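step 4 of 6: structure.
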Amino acid sequence: MNKPDWIGAEIDEARLRIWAMAGPTPVHAAETTLGGATPAATASTLGQAVIEALGTRLPGDRTLPVVACGLAPARGAAGFRPVPCTPLGDTLRPAPLRDLRLSLHLVPGLSQAQPTDAMLGAETRIAGFLARNPGWDGVLCLPGAQSRWVHLSAGEVVSFQTFLTGALTALLEGHSILRDSVSGWEDAAFVDGVRAGMERPERLAARLFTLHAEALIQGQPPAGGRARLSGLLIGAELAAAKPYWLGQRVAVLGAPSLAEQYARALADLAVPTSTCDDTEMTLAGLARARALIAPGPAPGTAH
Amino acid sequence: MNKPDWIGAEIDEARLRIWAMAGPTPVHAAETTLGGATPAATASTLGQAVIEALGTRLPGDRTLPVVACGLAPARGAAGFRPVPCTPLGDTLRPAPLRDLRLSLHLVPGLSQAQPTDAMLGAETRIAGFLARNPGWDGVLCLPGAQSRWVHLSAGEVVSFQTFLTGALTALLEGHSILRDSVSGWEDAAFVDGVRAGMERPERLAARLFTLHAEALIQGQPPAGGRARLSGLLIGAELAAAKPYWLGQRVAVLGAPSLAEQYARALADLAVPTSTCDDTEMTLAGLARARALIAPGPAPGTAH
């Protein structure tokens, strides 16, 4: 196995993902949390988590760079680059770290003034997609806890819009009265939900309760309830994101099962799509970011 | 203090409320939970909770009737009466209880076939409202974790529609990334949210994220964020409930602060409203239901 020469990290609300990288190739992957990661998490918390996750895999004789994207430590307005701009820019932001085994470099997020919007992590996936598809112009859809629609042109993010769709779906499935009412996947229920959500998005809160009422009265969850719930929420998003997808070809970057839902919904609107795995794009983007680190002390001279 | 001669109870997802009643007057109130009340909670669980809550306030020499509405034990299709119908009907459903100190009588919920809908508890508040406002025809709005719009005519519930608005708002405020981004109440932000939610309900998930993006970029929560969040969700509901309120006078039955939000939003639409406290209506409705209990053994003969 190749020795790692740098480390990639992605932090979101749910988890911290860490990859020990040898050039462009991950040689070890780990997943942990920062204990409820927030933008206020400190650099040393992140450094400690990386050391705990990789332990003896770290070389003892030199400093490895950690390239981190997402909810990285000590954000604020300074942590964002305003669009239109390239997804990565020219420099990373070094963050102070006491441990000599690591140096920490943060990928800035992107911000948008009107309508106010922000991304922390998606810019890296977008950079990875562009690295794999040079010269690609068009629309990206990045579903997840937050889903983003991104207009790319000439290598720049021109505009984007973020929806809380995935987080809402998860809250309703896991923490609302619907938790016992929605289960089961049926493709027809999903497509029906998407159409209903697009056509009458104002009825969302009523249609959600309908799923519960059916379970109450019939004594069992309605067939395909989870598919319908997801469809209703994605449908409303698609109605709002129409300026992004109308007449376009859309590349969907996401976890395979969720990306498939968006591709299915877009197919119903006769929008051609391609899908690709978001982890692969994150790694490609982190590798691109790693190339931006200014040359430091030569290996072996850090101590 | 008058001795209680019956007990009223209301069970919802969050709590079990119990009142020791002397005729129409509450002489003691208690609040507890059924440990995650579900329609499957048993009658004996409810009986036990009442006994724990009232203890020595129960007379030792006779059986007190408990009139319970809401998520009462052992529901299912049999626990609902289909609309159109009066809110209470002619009989309660007795539930078996081993403890001789109590007899348990359940208020049936109401169901609607098209669109599928159900209420468990609201029918009692509606009955209370009608008891206080005999002959009242028109529209009721009952906000809460679930908000309901009800068309009343000639003493009957003609149709109704339930929205998950309040529960969604609470989930977003308490359990989403917005928990640190929304705080503060500003009336202007609320009205602005209502208008935005009504006009473009499909943008809900995007506008929710905007609140978070503002907090991320500015480093502090946007002014009146909680008011805007609530307004966005109520606005979408009002767009969908338009057939209920358009050209009508609306009575809003709810907890005072929430009822006030709905009244404020409806005032912005030039819809005249009156508000009344939902606990008062629940008690009036339970008293009405208590009168339906078939005469049982005379007091003192239960043992």
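step 5 of 6: annotate
 - Residues 162-280 of chain B form a domain with the Nucleotidyltransferase; domain 5 fold (CATH 3.30.420.310).
 - Chain B has two domains: 6-133+282-290, 162-280.
step 6 of 6: archive
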